[in-house]
Design a protein that fits this description.
single chain; 195 residues; mainly alpha; 12 helices; globular
């Protein structure tokens, strides 16, 4: 049953995850302007999600939450590059299961961030490389596997796997909403540059 929860989340969010991956693949973060846009979009979704999780008592569900939270790291990067953001409205997580689903998305995103850090290193810009606390957060920790173990055994997830899926869908939608304007501008710029 526990393993089926993870499979259920992955299957139910496959389309959302794919859309987000495609949008991110269109953004050449080796270009400083696009990297700044990426950080802005991440902050506009991440800040309200993490704030809503904390308001909902996520620390009671995930004992090491204070080690996992990435808002401070992303705030440092934004300050380093002088980026101003407009966060999305905070989501309303109604259950513990929904909060666990949102954390699933946050923790899974760490794997993609390692790939992005490698892309930045291929063509390093000194300002950009000084603003990678968010991408580097959690290196050397086993946050993803330890979260999966917690998720697969958590009573709230076991009792309401559909709620976990709802929470994951909320988080995916917020990241996609924050990223859509960025990728639209990037696509327009690319088209105009190649005319």
């Amino acid at each position: 049953m526990a393993a089926a929860i993870w499979d259920m989340i992955r299957e139910a969010t496959r389309t959302s995850h794919s859309r987000l991956d495609i949008a991110l693949s269109r953004l050449d973060i080796a270009i400083p302007l696009y990297y700044e846009a990426f950080l802005r979009s991440q902050a506009e979704a991440l800040f309200p999600i993490e704030a809503a999780l904390e308001a909902g008592g996520i620390e009671e569900l995930i004992p090491d939450w204070t080690l996992r939270v990435r808002t401070p790291a992303l705030e440092r990067d934004l300050a380093t590059l002088g980026i101003v953001i407009k966060p999305l409205p905070a989501p309303a997580f109604k259950t513990a299961a929904e909060m666990l689903g949102a954390v699933y998305v946050l923790e899974a995103s760490r794997m993609g961030e390692r790939v992005m850090l490698a892309r930045l290193a291929e063509n390093p810009d000194s300002d950009t490389m000084n603003a990678t606390a968010y991408l580097r957060h959690g290196f050397g920790k086993r946050f993803w596997p330890s979260f999966l173990t917690l998720l697969e055994n958590h009573p709230a997830a076991l009792a309401d796997p559909a709620g976990v899926v709802r929470g994951a869908e909320i988080a995916f939608a917020m990241f996609e909403d924050a990223l859509t304007p960025v990728t639209s501008v990037a696509a327009t710029s690319f088209t105009q540059a190649n005319l």
